[in-house]
């Protein structure tokens, strides 16, 4: 069965994705930073309100994946907390200064993960050598790798994705970044069994009062504070429909 994982930045997003037929949720926060660790409140509510598997991301900050000692201590605490809360899976990735998998730190996080299924996220796309990284992640026991094929988006990364799919002796290769209804068939055609999409859209605020000239962002005064990121229910349904068509032909 081909699975559709939806990246969700809030519980509301996750509830929409679940209703639309998503098979699994990657739960995170802060879409502008590409996803960071969700709050304890969000984690707790996910367990209470969602029936499909939820895999929280553990990422202490935006930016690269080479972490300070303090960042790493936070990651260890978060992995242990997520494990103790009873989540079936977790998502993380750590690199060293040279762009290789940080094996020492990854072994520590894998040990702390217990029985949770581990996804190595798109830190893979910043690795110096993806083939060496695949071998190392296989040895570590990682269950899946979320990757764009080391390109700006997964469609551009199709050649490497195909290579990884053919050579992987363990981890599931899960394309992510720019996967949408217009191109999902391209991934399914090469034999991919899991795909990852944000299926996102901007949702206008329900507020009638709008304070002009005030922004919560210090970086970009053009950001619309009266809209926020959400999951497009119809897009998720369409992607599930496409997956069903492909499976029906097999």
UniProtKB/TrEMBL annotation:
Lineage of origin: Bacteria, Pseudomonadati, Pseudomonadota, Gammaproteobacteria, Enterobacterales
UniProt entry tagged with the keyword ATP-binding: no
Entry-linked SUPFAM superfamilies: CutC-like
PANTHER family, sorted: COPPER HOMEOSTASIS PROTEIN CUTC, COPPER HOMEOSTASIS PROTEIN CUTC HOMOLOG
Any one annotated GO CC term: cytoplasm
Keywords linked to the UniProt accession: Cytoplasm
Residue ranges crossing the lipid bilayer per the database entry: none
The keyword Cytoplasm is annotated on this UniProt entry: yes
Naturally occurring in which organism (per UniProt): Xenorhabdus vietnamensis
Protein name: PF03932 family protein CutC
Family membership: Belongs to the CutC family.
InterPro entries noted in UniProt: CutC-like (IPR005627), CutC-like_dom_sf (IPR036822)
Protein's cellular compartments: Cytoplasm
Gene of this entry: cutC
Gene Ontology molecular function: any one: copper ion binding
